[in-house]
TrEMBL record:
TM region(s), chain numbering: none
Name of protein: BTB domain-containing protein
Matches recorded under InterPro entries: BTB/POZ_dom, SKP1/BTB/POZ_sf
Organism: Rhizodiscina lignyota
Residues annotated as domain BTB: 28-95
Superkingdom of this protein's organism: Eukaryota
Length: 248
């Protein structure tokens, strides 16, 4: 859990390696305002990482090198996680401490993923996916309690939606039992689209534990690193294409 950079994914490793290029830490400064706080940093680095910021910063009409860019729909906490990752390749200086102290750590991760999706930052999205999966493998609950937020802020086919669905569809022996318990706990009210995706996903496969790659995992009924293919939830495109079409 200490290493926050995806291992074993050549595309992700290549993106993160390019982001360390010293030439990206030069160029003109850019000012961005989030909430009531202003941030100043090099425009070349953020332009490389994000298709949204690349387009905005190089807009000859707006000319955001001379005036601040205002992000109306972004939290300071989310933007600061992005900035720390942009310069260090990690989400937090001490992820264990942040996880312990934050009132809803996984919700924050989902919010950062949504921000990265809006801004076309595939490497950040992949980093978030890896951490969410690692937390789940370590025993955290699935993402059902965040489904309403996820579905309201992502488009159909989004990788974060797929992950939330698969955590249930591919790991519960009885989907009917899961739905019954979810109804009792009132965790799926108003989440019909998620239920539809869940049923479609389950019907398309033989059943749960599809990802169990070894006999030990199948017999022990345990989540393990060999059971989840993280790349299935990665965005393997290079920066340069907006995903959700929503304003950050």
């Amino acid at each position: 859990m200490g290493n926050q950079i995806s291992k074993g994914c050549p595309t992700q490793e290549a993106l993160m390696l390019k982001q360390k290029d010293p030439t990206l830490f030069g160029g003109e400064f850019v000012n961005i305002v989030v909430g009531n706080r202003g941030y100043t940093f090099r425009g070349r680095l953020i332009s490389f990482a994000s298709s949204y910021f690349d387009g905005i910063i190089h807009d000859s009409v707006a000319n955001y090198t001379n005036k601040p860019l205002v992000l109306k729909n972004t939290k300071n906490e989310v933007f600061e996680v992005f900035l720390f990752w942009l310069y260090t390749g990690q989400l937090f200086e001490d992820m264990g401490a942040t996880k312990a102290q934050h009132p809803d750590f996984r919700k924050l991760l989902c919010e950062v993923w949504v921000f990265a999706d809006k801004c076309g930052i595939p490497a950040l999205k992949n980093t978030i996916i890896d951490i969410l999966i690692d937390l789940w493998l370590a025993g955290s609950d699935d993402l059902v309690c965040y489904v309403q937020y996820i579905y309201e802020n992502t488009s159909a086919g989004a990788d974060l939606r797929k992950l939330a669905v698969d955590m249930v569809a591919l790991w519960w022996y009885s989907l009917a039992d899961w739905v019954e318990s979810a109804i009792e706990e009132k965790t799926i009210e108003g989440r019909q689209e998620f239920l539809q995706d869940l049923i479609i996903r389950r019907r398309a496969h033989e059943g749960p534990h599809e990802y169990a790659r070894c006999e030990i995992c199948r017999q022990s009924n345990k989540r393990s690193a060999c059971s989840v293919r993280k790349c299935e939830y990665h965005d393997h495109d290079s920066p340069g294409r907006l995903r959700s079409g929503l304003e950050p």
